[in-house]
Design brief:
Blueprint lengths: L21 H11 L2 H22 L2 H34 L1
Length: 93
């Protein structure tokens, strides 16, 4: 089975962004998929609260917060995958 050469890559079909700094890129990505930064913020908040509970000796609440952190990480990962799928489907249309 002889395969021919790959089709040429058309530069006009690729999205181009002007030189953008960190802030502009962060805001653009946040507008594209707002659940990922929200999930990251939630994960970090639960983690910090869990560490504070651990330092104060509230081991039961600390364990609960670590379990909540894992759930928050899972939700963030699901939001990331969902955003990637939505972007891929949008680019096909």
């Amino acid at each position: 089975m002889a395969a021919g050469p790959p089709p040429p890559l058309e530069p006009n079909s690729l999205p181009t962004f002007p030189e953008e700094g960190f802030t502009e890129k962060f805001l653009r990505k946040t507008r594209e998929n707002p659940l990922v930064p929200l999930g990251c913020l939630c994960t970090v908040s639960v983690l910090v609260y869990g560490i504070i509970c651990f330092k104060r000796g509230h081991t039961r609440r600390s364990q609960l917060m670590m379990r909540a952190r894992v759930i928050a990480q899972g939700c963030t990962f699901a939001a990331l995958l969902g955003g990637m799928v939505a972007t891929a489907l949008k680019s096909r249309q």
